[in-house]
Records
---
Amino acid sequence: MKAKGNFFLDNDDMRYQILQEDKLHELYKLFSSDEKEALGVSTTEEFQSLWLEMIESVGEFAGTQLRDNAAQVEKEDLVLKDGKVEVPPTMQSNVKTFVELGAHALSVPIKHGGMDAPILMELAGSEMIARACPSTLLNVGWYSSIANIIALFGNEEIQSMFLPDMITGEVSGSMSLTEPDVGSDLASMRSYGEEQEDGTWKIYGSKQFISNGSGGLSLVLAQNKKGAKGLKSLSLFVVPQELDGKANYIVSKIEEKPGLHGSATCALQFDGSKGWLVGKNGLGFKYMSLLMNEARLAVGFQGLGLMEACYRLAKDYADQRVAWSKPISQHEMICEKLLDMEAEIKTFRSLLYRGSYYASIVHFMERRIEDKALGDERTKELEKEIKNYQRKLREWTPLLKWWSGERSFVIARTCLQIHGGYGFTKEYQPEWWVRESLIISIYEGTSEIQALMCIKDTIKDIIRNPRRFAESLVAARMKALAETDAIKKRYYRIKLTYLNSIVTLVMKLMKQNVKGTFNENKSSDIIGLLKKLRETLVTFDNISPALLNASRICEMKAIVALSKAAVEDGERDPSRRSFALRFVNRWYPTMLRNKAELEWDDEQVAAIAQSKDDIAQASEG
Ligand SMILES: Cc1cc2nc3c(=O)[nH]c(=O)nc-3n(C[C@H](O)[C@H](O)[C@H](O)COP(=O)(O)OP(=O)(O)OC[C@H]3O[C@@H](n4cnc5c(N)ncnc54)[C@H](O)[C@@H]3O)c2cc1C
């Protein structure tokens, strides 16, 4: 295949990250002999070729049909008719080709008709699709993700009812969480199900902003009885859009949006719709969290694809546009912007691919632990090894989603800026990419929600193991002083700034809640402080400083993780050292800014946040 017109072959960095660290080799080792036989592979090389060929064909599809159709997708409107969405012809043709490639069910287990592809490979496909046409990604992304939840948690009856049509591509799904009055705060959800004598359920309520809401079925998260509240009463239901040729739920509205023109964002109305419980009653939030975590990685890839498209667009334009007798790409400020974009994209890809590799490892390790197909001894080892991957994945997922959301927009805007006046016209693509970038920080949990998840886990981790935290602080101090390699030295400064910021934050929490004085420069005091924090945190009245600074900590933690990935890439491959050096130098000042901002006690915010009951009472009154 030719590199031109193929979004995989024209991108050496993608290939590098997929093959880095022997990722596919390690995954191959986790396949059982039955699975290898079903795939028709008996060596690592064959396994690798299988997925690389598959990804090449998705790359060709993205780099030709999707790219060529993107402008037409923008022109054709979705139509709401009789409670269903009519998808325009160009999008229909995009989805049809994707299904014909067999790419829609890649990660679905072989026993259900899929190919058991590592999620890493499926998500690499998402990057390329997003680079060409984000709307199409929103239409094709709902086959395997939904099918996998049904395969994992649904009983045989449900699996046989719903999976075959998803595997043939006749039906795709959607994920219904958001309601008109409830988005981030899922515990306040009002939709509910009522169990029927025959074991099925009737679902009542309205769902809002549901992507692909007219795909054929929806996984609906709802309370397990009318009036219930909280996360523990949420159950997951699979609800077909039609039953016996009649509507089972309807699409009552399609949103008009600045981006994702070809993706139907639907209001859904469930009025006694027949549904089937997936898994156990009351565990819906747990199941949905699994789907959401994967979806968050997918949104990471959506942002990455968009960044790649914007960088290439900006670079091509800047190389051709001449001002003062030379291309604008050679004028210092534009040159710097382009180099920064490239370094950031490569670094982000490095961590994102590693994160999704860990997600793949966890997935197959879980399966092997359950079926013991690799023998008792190996199973025991896996039980230990998996924890490390799970921990890292949990730590990185909100960081990656946050970065994707916050940075896609900045990169799209930089691309527009580099295009000057043409960037602000509809004739050129940058304004479209800016519009497409706006959603990434909103769905699958807003940036603020990612930051809250990050801060919660960060503080929990530290108070669970204060000694480890204090040791890493001391080590970072020493290394920041002693390291002679310029890139690593910068990295340790970045890490030290982050750890010092955590100490500052903990001091603030202590000041608000516990009596006593501490010296933040003495590690014994820090351990003492953290132990005290562990003893007292449950009774903390005021965690406002942590909530206020969650985004800052999240950004800093992301920079630490990304810098580490850049340093490691530079160590493995000296040709990548220039990106690593640029990344750590570019982002160090952001660390200092965040730390300085965090040091300020913003009393106005604290006062308003603590008076929330008064505001709520006033608005109720
Ligand atoms: C195009 C599109 C597609 C979507 N697809 C789907 C889908 O397929 N399925 C689905 O279920 N939903 C979907 N959504 C909904 C989306 O996930 C929600 O919009 C999102 O989770 C935010 O919820 P909300 O809009 O109710 O905002 P709110 O929760 O009301 O939040 C409003 C603002 O307040 C902030 N905020 C809220 N709580 C806090 C807090 N404690 N601290 C600090 N800040 C806070 C938020 O970050 C946000 O900035 C989609 C939305 C859009 C626009």
---
Amino acid sequence: MSELTPDLLRELVAEARLAPSVHNIQPTRWRLLGDGRLALVDATWVRAPVADPAGHDVLVSHGAALEGMSLALNRRGLAITAMTTIEQPLSPQFAALCSFAVRQGVLPDPLAGHVAHRMTWRGKFAGAPDQAAPLVQLAVARDDLICIGDRRTIADIAGWADQAEFSFVRGDDYRAELLEWMRLSPSHPHYLLDGLNRDALAMNAVEATAARYVLGGLFKPLDRLGLAASLLSDSAKTASAAAIVLFCRPVGEDPLTTGRHFYRSWLEIDRAGLAACPISALADHPDFNDRLRKLGKIGTDLRLVNVFRIGWPSKPLKPRHFRLPVDRLIV
Ligand SMILES: Cc1cc2nc3c(=O)[nH]c(=O)nc-3n(C[C@H](O)[C@H](O)[C@H](O)COP(=O)(O)O)c2cc1C
């Protein structure tokens, strides 16, 4: 066993927090326990209950953070060991979801070097001379990813993604929650800390102001005029993807494990030289989930957990991670 000092824990958390989380809500905290084990702690008030009513995406986000911790340990020759996953309330605000000890001696993980570079790319994708090789690399690297590269099928899926997203956006509660997590002006007190700011959303100031109105007070009149759907459409971005990737995991899998693989898949996409943006609405909408399952010939033993659009970003990635300070993540 290896000892986790408070200084080392701060370094580890600084890297683990780069993991993705739904709407960038960052529900994960960490606590060093008296016996030297480290607990992954759920901040129980940090939720997106309308977009994620079952709390599955929160657990997937915790799983991604856990993988982030594992990769941070790996960079220091350390590994997670003796993990227990018994949920334990610590206070009304916090519940430990799992705890583990740390041991020495692991082989370097090739994905650890991609943590700082991975980000959500919400812009358009560019074409590239050799489209096939990285997609083949990806499909070979992971058997839980199904890559769809046919252009007409991608165009169809781009339409489905808009329909799925819009069916959710029509809900008043959904729009209110989304706006709550959006930081559309740099003067927002949480602009650099959490949620979705306009840099992360790849919006300029005019687009951000327009989004505020279209998702806010103007939504209903624009919807009555049949204009809201086209104003919110992402289909050009989705259709520009080199591939649509279906992320499938075993039915009944522990969502923390699913989240670890979700993050590793995304890092594998980065390793292949590609960028990605999840399209959760396609997996969350039962009809479109069904269509994609048929398209990907996904067996009944697998769940279609999420969908990525992936491709070559139209400009070089300059990753920026908007995250809570380390001090607030250690409780
Ligand atoms: C479970 C899960 C679902 C997500 N779904 C979406 C999505 O539907 N659309 C989207 O643009 N980003 C989605 N994201 C990406 C997050 O918004 C993103 O990870 C977060 O804002 C942090 O930014 P970063 O990935 O650039 O570090 C999802 C992330 C997770 C973990």
